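Example 4.3 (complexes with small molecules)
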Amino acid sequence: MADTEGLERDVLQRAEPHRPFTRVSTRLDFDAEGKRFGTLVVPHSRNDSAWGSVQIPVCVIARGSGPTVVMAGAAHGDEYEGPIALMKLARALDPAEVQGRLIILPTVNVPAVRAGTRLSPVDGLNLNRIYPGRADGTVTQMIAHYVTTHLLPLADVVVDLHSGGKTLNFLPSAVMHYLDDRHRMDHTLAAVKAFGAPAGMVLRELDSQGMLDTTAEEMGRIFVTTELGGSGTLTRETVEIAETGLANLLAHFEVIDRPIATPESRGRAPTRMMHTPDETSFVLAEDGGIFEVLVDLGDPVAAGQPIGQIHFYEQPDRPPLTYFARTDGVLWCRHAPGLVQRGDCIAVIATDFPG
Ligand code: CA
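Answer. The structure with calcium ion bound is encoded below.
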């Protein structure tokens, strides 16, 4: 039986005296029970559509009392596992199975998905570098601001599904960050393990400014993200990891009552918990050229081992510049396109997470 008294209490506690101004509108009821599809309407007046808008699809599934989980995909428009897994989940999930609330945004950056690009073609902005956004900003800034001021306050748990996009490729991983709050760190670690990807990563970002990750974490939400592959495409395996991982997370937070499908139960190796404790994990190109990777994703590497070399295609007599791992671990991420420029991140080495 649904605990409606609990829901009312829950909603009252979450209700705010007034919500901040936003130009984003929606007719979607976030509180009513059942399953509904709708849109966030972001005004976008332009040459080819005077009174036009960008419309962000949203699905709300709610029943009884329980945690609110906000799940988003395609913050970057060239990452595909998230949107597919979230659309499948939104269509398939029976509200009768839910205890709590799901707010699902399979393509939170629709203009970038339409263009197949990381950044939005509307304003050239990176949705995951401009949080908390601006109410009076561009389309991408308004989306970020709405998520910050209207969705994160509803959320107990935030799941943002990423992949490597066109320029990176990852060992498929559920990802979190180091958190000062030990209690929240332990809760998030448990969620990352429950996801059941080949790897669980505690990541130190090269630059965490303006990320949804940082904003949600600073608001005290449990935040889980992913890196599920990349190269601007997907594989059967990475989509399966995304779908299973989402169901596992919902089971872990008791929003659905299903057994967790561990990697072992799917005939795979257990999730390997890893981290990038400092900047020695990251390898940056010092010169442009053609990148020859010397180890495969997931391969073990030792500090001092060559992991790739960059060839100078206009100077065939010049030897390539070799890049070495600066720490022991495994190759967790690599630059995807053959061509690199000075400053590109060409590899990330992850090491086993202690404890
Ligand atoms: Ca991404």
